[in-house]
Design brief:
- This protein is an all-alpha fold.
- Helices cover 58% and strands 0% of the residues.
- Helix 1 packs antiparallel against helix 2.
- The longest helix is centred in the middle third of the chain and has 24 residues.
Length: 64
């Protein structure tokens, strides 16, 4: 299997991620371009999910 090299930047902010998702849905992508866009959105979602989960803690949670 050949390796795909993607040049699509990974969205860094939640606004950029929303724009990338909208572009992904509205554009008729095929092949490597489809894969690269999907991969960039997945990576951004995972990164933002981790950072948002860290900031969403309940105060005093450690005392339970």
């Amino acid at each position: 299997m050949s390796e795909v090299i993607c040049n699509i930047p990974v969205p860094q902010t939640s606004q950029q991620l929303e724009q990338a998702i909208q572009h992904y849905r509205e554009t008729d992508l095929h092949g490597e371009e489809l894969f690269c866009e999907f991969q960039a959105i997945c990576e951004a979602s995972l990164k933002q999910g981790v950072s948002e989960a860290d900031s969403d803690k309940v105060s005093g949670e450690d005392s339970y």
